[in-house]
Automatic annotation (TrEMBL):
One of its GO terms (biological process) is negative regulation of DNA-templated transcription. Keywords: DNA-binding, Transcription, Transcription regulation. GO terms for molecular function: DNA binding; DNA-binding transcription factor activity. The lineage of its organism: Bacteria, Bacillati, Actinomycetota, Actinomycetes, Kitasatosporales. It comes from Streptomyces lavendofoliae. Residues 8-76 form the HTH gntR-type domain. This is HTH-type transcriptional regulator. It comes from the Bacteria.
Length: 252
């Protein structure tokens, strides 16, 4: 698959660099950004490119302009991604019926992705679910979901571990997402989630699964759900162009 970074416009890449710097504390909330010439030099970019990125940041509420002061970072920059912990099949399609079809239900060793987002040990065994979501008979999304290792779940969210065990090998597991299982097992459990949204192409393998050409534009959502401070599930959701709408909730 062609990486999203290779296909993204330079201004979008620059936008994300500045956003990352804000979240990392390089430009703290409430602080005033350096002047355009200085900031362009710090980032190694041209002033026209920087100006365009700054305008987008202002439009999105991360920056404000104060006469005599300059560009100031918002006191509470908006968090990125869709933050509502709700199964994807309930979110897409604006209420239209969405069918989940299992492509794979397996156990696998960690990849770089799961090692990073689930903090999985090298030899851990992780449940992996790959599902195709269809709305009105059309492929709407491809989901890949990983649960944390069994010993982690037994400590952080034993009800989720039991729900996955109960679903294993049953018809229900083929008709639902892992996130739906997690949501159903989490009554009384405090969950939090963070998601990032990027533009990409579906690529050859996913294109075949979605019934789309490899160069079809798509939105890729990376989602991590935590019980307390412990990540218990990580996922990648790919929605190709023309898929059912996905409502996005942003919160401060």
């Amino acid at each position: 698959m062609v990486s999203s970074m290779e296909r993204r416009r330079p201004v979008v890449v620059l936008y994300e660099r500045i956003v990352d710097a804000i979240h990392a504390g390089t430009y703290p909330p409430g602080s005033t950004l350096p002047s355009e010439p200085r900031l362009a030099a710090e980032l190694g970019v041209s002033r026209p490119a920087l100006r365009e990125a700054l305008l987008l940041l202002q439009e999105d509420g991360l920056l404000s302009v104060r006469r005599g002061v300059g560009r100031t970072v918002a006191d509470r920059p908006p968090r990125r991604g869709f933050e509502h912990i709700q199964p994807l099949e309930e979110l897409i399609g604006a209420g239209a019926p969405v069918r989940v079809r299992a492509l794979l239900r397996a156990v696998e060793e960690p990849t770089d992705f799961t090692a990073q987002h689930l903090l999985a040990a090298a030899r851990a065994r992780l449940r992996f679910w790959e599902s195709l979501l269809a709305a009105d008979g059309t492929a709407a999304a491809l989901s890949q979901e990983w649960a944390a290792a069994e010993d982690v779940l037994e400590t952080a969210h034993p009800a989720f571990a039991r729900a996955l065990d109960a679903a294993a090998g049953t018809p229900d597991a083929a008709r639902t997402s892992m996130l739906a299982v997690l949501a159903g097992a989490s009554r009384g459990v405090s969950l939090s989630a963070h998601s990032s949204v990027t533009a990409t192409l579906v690529g050859q393998r996913r294109g075949e699964q979605l019934g789309r050409p490899a160069d079809t534009p798509a939105v890729l959502i990376t989602q991590v759900v935590r019980a307390g401070d412990t990540p218990v599930m990580a996922a990648k959701h790919m929605l190709p162009t023309g898929a059912a709408a996905l409502p996005v909730l942003q919160s401060n």
